Amino acid sequence: MSSPADDGAAEKSNNNNNDFTVTPWEVEGEVDYNRLIEKFGTQPITQELLQKIKSMTGEVHPMLKLGYFFSHRDFDWILDKKQKGENFYLYTGRGPSGMVHMGHLMPWMFTKYLQDKFDSKLLFQLTDDEKFLYGQDRTREETKRYTYENILDIIAIGFDPKKTKIIVDTKHIEHLYPIATEVAKRITFSTAKAVFGFTNSTNIGMIGFPPIQAAPCFLPSIIEGKNTPVLIPAAIDQDPYWRMTRDVADRMGYYKPAQVHSKFLPGLGMMGKMSSSKPETAIFTTDEPEVVEKKVSSAFTGGQPTIALQRQLGANALGCPVFWYLRYFFDTEKQSDERMLKCKSGNLLCGECKADLAKGAKPFVVEFKKRREKAKDVVAKFMYDEKPIEP
Ligand code: TYM
Prior knowledge:
By secondary structure, this protein is of the alpha/beta class. It has helices at 4-7, 33-40, 47-57, 62-65, 75-83, 102-118, 128-134, 140-156, 169-185, 189-196, 204-208, 210-214, 219-224, 239-252, 289-297, 307-313, 321-330, 333-344, 350-375, 379-382; strands at 20-23, 26-29, 43-44, 69-73, 89-94, 122-126, 164-168, 230-235, 258-262. It folds into two domains: 30-264, HUPs (Rossmann fold), CATH 3.40.50.620; 289-376, Tyrosyl-Transfer RNA Synthetase (Orthogonal Bundle), CATH 1.10.240.10. The chain has 20 helices and nine strands. It has a seven-stranded mixed beta sheet with strand order 3-4-9-8-5-6-7, with helices on both faces. A hairpin with a 2-residue loop joins β1 and β2. α7 (128-134) packs across α8 (140-156) and α17 crosses α19 (350-375). Bound molecules: ligand 1. Ligand 1 is lined by residues 24, 91-95, 103-104, 106-107, 125, 127, 130, 213, 232, 234-235, 237-238, 262, 264-265, 273-274. Belongs to the class-I aminoacyl-tRNA synthetase family. It comes from Candidatus Nitrososphaera evergladensis SR1. Keywords: Aminoacyl-tRNA synthetase, ATP-binding, Cytoplasm, Ligase, Nucleotide-binding, Protein biosynthesis.
Protein backbone atom coordinates (compact mmCIF):
# COMPACT_ATOMS: atom_id res chain seq x y z
CA MET A 1 0.00 0.00 0.00
CA SER A 2 1.35 3.41 -0.83
CA SER A 3 1.92 5.99 1.85
CA PRO A 4 -0.24 9.11 2.06
CA ALA A 5 2.75 11.16 0.99
CA ASP A 6 2.90 9.18 -2.27
CA ASP A 7 -0.69 10.01 -2.95
CA GLY A 8 -0.36 13.69 -2.32
CA ALA A 9 -3.89 13.97 -0.94
CA ALA A 10 -4.99 15.51 2.30
CA GLU A 11 -1.67 15.24 4.07
CA LYS A 12 -2.38 16.22 7.64
CA SER A 13 -5.15 18.54 6.50
CA ASN A 14 -7.00 18.22 9.75
CA ASN A 15 -3.99 18.00 11.93
CA ASN A 16 -4.58 19.36 15.39
CA ASN A 17 -1.40 20.73 16.95
CA ASN A 18 0.64 18.10 15.09
CA ASP A 19 0.13 15.33 17.64
CA PHE A 20 -2.65 13.53 15.84
CA THR A 21 -4.11 13.48 12.37
CA VAL A 22 -7.61 12.51 11.25
CA THR A 23 -8.50 12.63 7.57
CA PRO A 24 -10.53 10.18 5.44
CA TRP A 25 -7.21 8.66 4.35
CA GLU A 26 -5.02 8.85 7.38
CA VAL A 27 -5.50 8.46 11.12
CA GLU A 28 -2.31 8.80 13.14
CA GLY A 29 -1.41 9.42 16.76
CA GLU A 30 -3.53 9.45 19.88
CA VAL A 31 -6.81 11.03 18.86
CA ASP A 32 -8.36 13.58 21.22
CA TYR A 33 -12.04 13.15 20.43
CA ASN A 34 -13.18 16.19 22.40
CA ARG A 35 -10.88 18.33 20.35
CA LEU A 36 -12.26 16.79 17.17
CA ILE A 37 -15.79 17.80 18.21
CA GLU A 38 -14.55 21.39 18.46
CA LYS A 39 -12.42 21.28 15.35
CA PHE A 40 -15.04 19.64 13.13
CA GLY A 41 -17.90 21.61 14.70
CA THR A 42 -20.01 18.59 15.65
CA GLN A 43 -22.20 18.03 18.71
CA PRO A 44 -21.40 15.67 21.60
CA ILE A 45 -23.93 12.92 22.28
CA THR A 46 -25.73 14.10 25.40
CA GLN A 47 -27.69 12.24 28.07
CA GLU A 48 -30.78 13.99 26.74
CA LEU A 49 -30.22 12.51 23.28
CA LEU A 50 -29.64 9.06 24.79
CA GLN A 51 -32.91 9.39 26.71
CA LYS A 52 -34.73 10.29 23.53
CA ILE A 53 -33.31 7.22 21.77
CA LYS A 54 -34.33 5.09 24.74
CA SER A 55 -37.85 6.47 24.70
CA MET A 56 -38.15 5.54 21.02
CA THR A 57 -36.40 2.16 20.95
CA GLY A 58 -36.69 0.91 24.50
CA GLU A 59 -32.92 0.70 24.95
CA VAL A 60 -29.61 2.43 24.47
CA HIS A 61 -27.17 0.47 22.32
CA PRO A 62 -23.93 -0.34 24.19
CA MET A 63 -21.89 1.53 21.56
CA LEU A 64 -23.84 4.68 22.48
CA LYS A 65 -23.86 3.99 26.18
CA LEU A 66 -20.12 3.38 26.30
CA GLY A 67 -19.42 6.52 24.26
CA TYR A 68 -18.02 4.67 21.24
CA PHE A 69 -20.44 6.71 19.16
CA PHE A 70 -19.62 10.04 20.72
CA SER A 71 -20.62 12.82 18.37
CA HIS A 72 -23.31 13.74 15.86
CA ARG A 73 -24.90 16.31 13.65
CA ASP A 74 -28.70 16.49 13.56
CA PHE A 75 -29.25 13.01 15.04
CA ASP A 76 -31.86 14.66 17.29
CA TRP A 77 -33.47 16.31 14.28
CA ILE A 78 -33.71 12.95 12.46
CA LEU A 79 -35.37 11.41 15.52
CA ASP A 80 -37.87 14.31 15.65
CA LYS A 81 -38.68 13.70 12.00
CA LYS A 82 -39.20 9.99 12.71
CA GLN A 83 -41.49 10.81 15.63
CA LYS A 84 -43.53 12.96 13.30
CA GLY A 85 -43.88 10.03 10.91
CA GLU A 86 -41.14 10.91 8.42
CA ASN A 87 -38.89 7.91 7.72
CA PHE A 88 -35.18 8.34 7.29
CA TYR A 89 -32.65 6.45 5.21
CA LEU A 90 -29.35 5.18 6.54
CA TYR A 91 -26.24 5.59 4.43
CA THR A 92 -22.82 4.12 5.11
CA GLY A 93 -19.93 2.67 3.13
CA ARG A 94 -16.59 1.06 2.58
CA GLY A 95 -13.55 1.84 0.47
CA PRO A 96 -12.41 -1.58 -0.76
CA SER A 97 -8.68 -1.29 -0.18
CA GLY A 98 -8.22 -4.61 1.57
CA MET A 99 -10.01 -7.24 3.61
CA VAL A 100 -12.42 -6.18 6.33
CA HIS A 101 -11.22 -6.00 9.94
CA MET A 102 -13.11 -5.75 13.19
CA GLY A 103 -12.80 -1.95 13.24
CA HIS A 104 -14.91 -1.71 10.10
CA LEU A 105 -17.55 -3.96 11.61
CA MET A 106 -18.29 -1.52 14.43
CA PRO A 107 -20.14 1.15 12.41
CA TRP A 108 -21.83 -1.55 10.34
CA MET A 109 -23.10 -3.43 13.38
CA PHE A 110 -24.43 -0.15 14.72
CA THR A 111 -26.04 0.59 11.35
CA LYS A 112 -27.82 -2.77 11.47
CA TYR A 113 -29.12 -1.94 14.94
CA LEU A 114 -30.45 1.37 13.61
CA GLN A 115 -32.01 -0.39 10.62
CA ASP A 116 -33.76 -2.88 12.91
CA LYS A 117 -34.92 -0.29 15.44
CA PHE A 118 -36.09 2.39 13.03
CA ASP A 119 -37.11 0.15 10.15
CA SER A 120 -34.89 2.21 7.85
CA LYS A 121 -33.80 1.60 4.29
CA LEU A 122 -30.04 1.55 3.85
CA LEU A 123 -27.74 2.58 1.03
CA PHE A 124 -24.28 1.04 1.32
CA GLN A 125 -21.65 2.55 -0.97
CA LEU A 126 -18.41 0.88 -2.05
CA THR A 127 -15.99 3.53 -3.26
CA ASP A 128 -13.83 1.33 -5.48
CA ASP A 129 -12.99 4.44 -7.52
CA GLU A 130 -11.69 6.29 -4.44
CA LYS A 131 -9.44 3.45 -3.38
CA PHE A 132 -8.09 2.89 -6.88
CA LEU A 133 -7.32 6.60 -7.24
CA TYR A 134 -5.83 6.95 -3.78
CA GLY A 135 -3.42 4.01 -3.82
CA GLN A 136 -0.65 4.94 -6.24
CA ASP A 137 0.31 1.27 -6.73
CA ARG A 138 -3.18 -0.18 -6.50
CA THR A 139 -4.62 -1.89 -9.60
CA ARG A 140 -8.24 -1.99 -10.77
CA GLU A 141 -8.14 -5.80 -10.40
CA GLU A 142 -7.24 -5.44 -6.73
CA THR A 143 -10.07 -3.04 -5.93
CA LYS A 144 -12.46 -5.26 -7.90
CA ARG A 145 -11.47 -8.31 -5.87
CA TYR A 146 -11.74 -6.48 -2.56
CA THR A 147 -15.10 -5.05 -3.61
CA TYR A 148 -16.50 -8.57 -3.91
CA GLU A 149 -14.82 -9.81 -0.73
CA ASN A 150 -16.03 -6.76 1.25
CA ILE A 151 -19.58 -7.22 -0.02
CA LEU A 152 -19.60 -10.68 1.60
CA ASP A 153 -18.70 -9.07 4.93
CA ILE A 154 -21.39 -6.43 4.54
CA ILE A 155 -24.04 -9.06 3.86
CA ALA A 156 -22.73 -11.19 6.74
CA ILE A 157 -23.60 -8.36 9.14
CA GLY A 158 -27.23 -9.37 8.62
CA PHE A 159 -28.80 -6.31 6.98
CA ASP A 160 -32.37 -6.74 5.74
CA PRO A 161 -32.11 -7.65 2.02
CA LYS A 162 -35.47 -6.00 1.32
CA LYS A 163 -34.30 -2.72 2.80
CA THR A 164 -30.62 -2.62 1.81
CA LYS A 165 -29.01 -1.69 -1.47
CA ILE A 166 -25.30 -1.87 -2.16
CA ILE A 167 -23.87 0.65 -4.61
CA VAL A 168 -20.51 -0.03 -6.25
CA ASP A 169 -19.34 3.26 -7.70
CA THR A 170 -17.87 1.99 -10.97
CA LYS A 171 -20.89 -0.30 -11.57
CA HIS A 172 -23.75 1.97 -10.59
CA ILE A 173 -22.27 5.32 -11.48
CA GLU A 174 -25.24 6.36 -13.62
CA HIS A 175 -27.33 6.64 -10.45
CA LEU A 176 -24.74 8.82 -8.73
CA TYR A 177 -23.27 10.92 -11.47
CA PRO A 178 -26.16 13.33 -12.11
CA ILE A 179 -26.28 14.17 -8.38
CA ALA A 180 -22.48 14.31 -8.13
CA THR A 181 -22.29 16.91 -10.90
CA GLU A 182 -24.86 19.05 -9.05
CA VAL A 183 -22.67 18.83 -5.94
CA ALA A 184 -19.40 19.40 -7.82
CA LYS A 185 -20.71 22.52 -9.52
CA ARG A 186 -21.24 24.15 -6.13
CA ILE A 187 -17.79 23.44 -4.67
CA THR A 188 -14.72 25.44 -5.56
CA PHE A 189 -11.21 24.02 -5.66
CA SER A 190 -10.30 26.36 -2.86
CA THR A 191 -13.00 24.83 -0.59
CA ALA A 192 -11.93 21.29 -1.57
CA LYS A 193 -8.32 22.13 -0.68
CA ALA A 194 -9.35 23.55 2.67
CA VAL A 195 -11.60 20.59 3.54
CA PHE A 196 -9.50 17.71 2.21
CA GLY A 197 -5.99 19.17 2.10
CA PHE A 198 -5.49 18.54 -1.62
CA THR A 199 -2.20 19.87 -2.96
CA ASN A 200 -0.68 20.42 -6.39
CA SER A 201 0.57 16.85 -6.37
CA THR A 202 -2.86 15.30 -5.68
CA ASN A 203 -4.05 13.41 -8.73
CA ILE A 204 -7.10 15.03 -10.30
CA GLY A 205 -9.18 11.89 -9.85
CA MET A 206 -8.98 12.35 -6.08
CA ILE A 207 -9.88 16.02 -6.40
CA GLY A 208 -12.98 15.13 -8.39
CA PHE A 209 -13.99 12.22 -6.18
CA PRO A 210 -15.71 13.77 -3.10
CA PRO A 211 -19.02 14.57 -4.86
CA ILE A 212 -19.37 10.85 -5.63
CA GLN A 213 -19.34 10.06 -1.92
CA ALA A 214 -21.78 12.94 -1.36
CA ALA A 215 -24.26 11.63 -3.95
CA PRO A 216 -25.90 8.86 -1.85
CA CYS A 217 -26.87 11.54 0.70
CA PHE A 218 -29.39 12.83 -1.84
CA LEU A 219 -30.21 9.65 -3.77
CA PRO A 220 -32.98 8.69 -1.29
CA SER A 221 -34.82 11.92 -2.14
CA ILE A 222 -34.72 10.93 -5.80
CA ILE A 223 -35.74 7.32 -5.13
CA GLU A 224 -38.62 8.36 -2.89
CA GLY A 225 -39.66 11.33 -5.04
CA LYS A 226 -39.63 13.64 -2.02
CA ASN A 227 -37.10 15.26 0.27
CA THR A 228 -35.91 12.41 2.51
CA PRO A 229 -33.77 12.65 5.66
CA VAL A 230 -30.56 10.61 5.73
CA LEU A 231 -28.47 9.53 8.72
CA ILE A 232 -24.86 8.44 8.24
CA PRO A 233 -23.27 6.19 10.88
CA ALA A 234 -19.47 6.10 10.39
CA ALA A 235 -16.24 6.77 12.22
CA ILE A 236 -15.30 10.44 12.45
CA ASP A 237 -12.61 10.16 9.74
CA GLN A 238 -15.30 10.47 7.07
CA ASP A 239 -16.56 13.79 8.41
CA PRO A 240 -14.86 16.07 5.82
CA TYR A 241 -17.15 14.55 3.18
CA TRP A 242 -20.22 15.43 5.21
CA ARG A 243 -19.10 18.96 5.99
CA MET A 244 -18.77 19.56 2.28
CA THR A 245 -22.09 17.89 1.51
CA ARG A 246 -24.02 19.75 4.19
CA ASP A 247 -22.68 22.98 2.77
CA VAL A 248 -24.38 22.43 -0.59
CA ALA A 249 -27.53 20.59 0.55
CA ASP A 250 -29.70 23.67 1.07
CA ARG A 251 -28.65 25.14 -2.23
CA MET A 252 -29.65 21.89 -3.95
CA GLY A 253 -33.03 21.88 -2.19
CA TYR A 254 -32.33 18.86 0.03
CA TYR A 255 -32.14 18.25 3.76
CA LYS A 256 -28.63 18.32 5.15
CA PRO A 257 -27.48 14.72 5.85
CA ALA A 258 -27.24 13.91 9.57
CA GLN A 259 -24.33 11.99 11.06
CA VAL A 260 -23.50 9.90 14.07
CA HIS A 261 -19.74 9.57 14.52
CA SER A 262 -17.78 6.81 16.18
CA LYS A 263 -14.28 6.67 17.58
CA PHE A 264 -11.75 4.24 16.11
CA LEU A 265 -11.23 0.73 17.28
CA PRO A 266 -7.51 0.73 18.05
CA GLY A 267 -5.13 -1.67 16.38
CA LEU A 268 -3.42 -4.30 18.52
CA GLY A 269 -0.18 -2.34 18.19
CA MET A 270 1.02 0.62 20.19
CA MET A 271 -1.20 3.39 18.89
CA GLY A 272 -3.53 4.47 16.13
CA LYS A 273 -6.66 2.95 14.65
CA MET A 274 -6.97 -0.59 13.42
CA SER A 275 -5.90 -0.49 9.81
CA SER A 276 -5.53 -2.98 6.95
CA SER A 277 -2.17 -1.39 6.21
CA LYS A 278 -0.86 -2.84 9.51
CA PRO A 279 -2.21 -6.41 9.11
CA GLU A 280 -0.28 -7.84 12.06
CA THR A 281 -2.22 -5.54 14.40
CA ALA A 282 -5.68 -6.02 12.87
CA ILE A 283 -8.07 -8.94 13.25
CA PHE A 284 -9.61 -9.67 9.88
CA THR A 285 -12.94 -11.42 9.49
CA THR A 286 -11.16 -13.95 7.30
CA ASP A 287 -8.32 -14.71 9.74
CA GLU A 288 -7.98 -18.31 10.87
CA PRO A 289 -8.43 -18.85 14.63
CA GLU A 290 -4.72 -19.72 15.03
CA VAL A 291 -3.79 -16.41 13.40
CA VAL A 292 -6.16 -14.56 15.72
CA GLU A 293 -4.56 -16.30 18.69
CA LYS A 294 -1.10 -15.29 17.51
CA LYS A 295 -2.06 -11.65 16.90
CA VAL A 296 -3.73 -11.40 20.29
CA SER A 297 -0.80 -12.98 22.09
CA SER A 298 1.61 -10.45 20.56
CA ALA A 299 -0.70 -7.48 21.21
CA PHE A 300 0.54 -4.33 22.90
CA THR A 301 -1.08 -3.81 26.31
CA GLY A 302 -1.20 -1.16 29.00
CA GLY A 303 0.82 -3.44 31.29
CA GLN A 304 4.01 -2.91 33.28
CA PRO A 305 7.37 -4.40 32.22
CA THR A 306 7.26 -7.09 34.96
CA ILE A 307 4.58 -9.01 36.82
CA ALA A 308 5.91 -7.74 40.13
CA LEU A 309 5.58 -4.12 39.00
CA GLN A 310 2.13 -4.76 37.63
CA ARG A 311 0.97 -6.24 40.93
CA GLN A 312 2.46 -3.24 42.70
CA LEU A 313 1.46 -0.36 40.40
CA GLY A 314 -1.45 -1.68 38.38
CA ALA A 315 -1.76 -1.20 34.61
CA ASN A 316 -3.27 1.30 32.21
CA ALA A 317 -6.55 -0.15 30.91
CA LEU A 318 -7.53 2.97 28.98
CA GLY A 319 -4.32 2.85 26.94
CA CYS A 320 -4.67 -0.86 26.21
CA PRO A 321 -6.14 -2.09 22.91
CA VAL A 322 -6.92 -5.50 24.43
CA PHE A 323 -9.12 -3.78 27.02
CA TRP A 324 -11.00 -1.82 24.35
CA TYR A 325 -11.55 -4.85 22.15
CA LEU A 326 -13.00 -6.73 25.06
CA ARG A 327 -15.10 -3.75 26.08
CA TYR A 328 -16.63 -3.16 22.66
CA PHE A 329 -17.05 -6.72 21.46
CA PHE A 330 -17.04 -9.32 24.15
CA ASP A 331 -17.46 -7.97 27.71
CA THR A 332 -20.71 -6.80 29.20
CA GLU A 333 -20.54 -3.29 30.63
CA LYS A 334 -20.36 -4.75 34.13
CA GLN A 335 -17.58 -7.18 33.22
CA SER A 336 -15.67 -4.38 31.54
CA ASP A 337 -15.95 -2.02 34.51
CA GLU A 338 -14.73 -4.80 36.82
CA ARG A 339 -11.88 -5.56 34.42
CA MET A 340 -10.80 -1.94 34.52
CA LEU A 341 -10.79 -1.81 38.31
CA LYS A 342 -8.87 -5.07 38.60
CA CYS A 343 -6.39 -3.95 35.97
CA LYS A 344 -5.75 -0.58 37.59
CA SER A 345 -5.25 -2.11 41.00
CA GLY A 346 -2.77 -4.73 39.79
CA ASN A 347 -5.14 -7.65 40.36
CA LEU A 348 -5.26 -8.65 36.73
CA LEU A 349 -2.37 -9.56 34.46
CA CYS A 350 -2.21 -8.87 30.73
CA GLY A 351 -1.99 -12.57 29.92
CA GLU A 352 -5.42 -13.09 31.47
CA CYS A 353 -7.00 -10.35 29.36
CA LYS A 354 -5.32 -11.66 26.22
CA ALA A 355 -6.67 -15.15 26.98
CA ASP A 356 -10.18 -13.68 27.37
CA LEU A 357 -9.85 -11.80 24.11
CA ALA A 358 -8.66 -14.88 22.21
CA LYS A 359 -11.54 -16.84 23.75
CA GLY A 360 -14.03 -14.31 22.38
CA ALA A 361 -12.42 -13.46 19.04
CA LYS A 362 -11.70 -17.00 17.79
CA PRO A 363 -15.31 -18.26 17.73
CA PHE A 364 -16.36 -14.84 16.46
CA VAL A 365 -14.27 -15.15 13.29
CA VAL A 366 -15.29 -18.80 12.81
CA GLU A 367 -18.98 -17.85 12.94
CA PHE A 368 -18.48 -14.76 10.78
CA LYS A 369 -16.72 -16.80 8.10
CA LYS A 370 -19.72 -19.14 7.90
CA ARG A 371 -21.97 -16.15 7.35
CA ARG A 372 -19.65 -14.85 4.63
CA GLU A 373 -19.91 -18.20 2.85
CA LYS A 374 -23.71 -18.07 2.94
CA ALA A 375 -23.61 -14.50 1.65
CA LYS A 376 -22.19 -15.73 -1.66
CA ASP A 377 -25.62 -17.06 -2.63
CA VAL A 378 -27.47 -13.80 -2.11
CA VAL A 379 -25.14 -11.11 -3.45
CA ALA A 380 -27.41 -10.11 -6.34
CA LYS A 381 -30.33 -9.54 -3.96
CA PHE A 382 -28.37 -6.80 -2.24
CA MET A 383 -26.99 -5.01 -5.29
CA TYR A 384 -28.52 -1.71 -6.36
CA ASP A 385 -29.33 -3.10 -9.81
CA GLU A 386 -30.00 -6.61 -8.45
CA LYS A 387 -27.40 -8.04 -10.80
CA PRO A 388 -24.68 -10.41 -9.61
CA ILE A 389 -21.14 -9.14 -9.26
CA GLU A 390 -18.17 -11.30 -10.18
CA PRO A 391 -15.58 -12.34 -7.57
P1 TYM B 1 -13.24 2.87 4.94
O1 TYM B 1 -13.24 1.68 4.07
O2 TYM B 1 -11.92 3.52 5.25
O3 TYM B 1 -13.93 2.53 6.30
C1 TYM B 1 -15.20 1.91 6.35
C2 TYM B 1 -15.91 2.33 7.63
O4 TYM B 1 -15.18 1.91 8.76
C3 TYM B 1 -14.82 3.03 9.56
N1 TYM B 1 -13.50 2.68 10.10
C4 TYM B 1 -13.31 2.36 11.38
N2 TYM B 1 -14.17 2.38 12.40
C5 TYM B 1 -13.68 2.03 13.62
N3 TYM B 1 -12.40 1.69 13.84
C6 TYM B 1 -11.49 1.66 12.84
N4 TYM B 1 -10.26 1.29 13.09
C7 TYM B 1 -11.95 2.02 11.53
N5 TYM B 1 -11.37 2.12 10.32
C8 TYM B 1 -12.33 2.52 9.46
C9 TYM B 1 -14.87 4.22 8.62
O5 TYM B 1 -15.14 5.43 9.28
C10 TYM B 1 -16.05 3.84 7.75
O6 TYM B 1 -17.26 4.12 8.40
N6 TYM B 1 -14.62 6.61 1.85
C11 TYM B 1 -15.10 5.56 2.73
C12 TYM B 1 -16.21 4.72 2.10
C13 TYM B 1 -17.57 5.37 2.18
C14 TYM B 1 -18.29 5.66 3.38
C15 TYM B 1 -19.52 6.25 2.97
C16 TYM B 1 -18.00 5.43 4.73
C17 TYM B 1 -18.33 5.76 1.14
N7 TYM B 1 -19.51 6.29 1.58
C18 TYM B 1 -20.46 6.63 3.90
C19 TYM B 1 -18.93 5.82 5.67
C20 TYM B 1 -20.16 6.42 5.25
C21 TYM B 1 -13.96 4.66 3.17
O7 TYM B 1 -12.97 4.55 2.50
O8 TYM B 1 -14.23 3.96 4.34
